[in-house]
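Need tokens for this chain, all 78 residues.
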Amino acid sequence: MDEPRRDPQDRVRFLTVNEVADLMRVSRMTVYRLVHSGELPAVRVGRSFRVPQDALDAYLRSSATVDPGAAEEHRRSS
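Here are the structure tokens for all 78 residues:
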């Protein structure tokens, strides 16, 4: 039985620890700490970790300390 074809856009994108660190503007060690603590889901590939883009996006959304709408409103009122 054939599986339905998936749109290439639906494929999971995996990021390296370096890519995650660059995107978050933190050190690689900070990313490793997040992965090892379980705060940031990752997949182990050999001796390396790969972080799904969706997992990084969810982590950043859940870690936001400022409501993006409130921040925009604050900028307009300044």
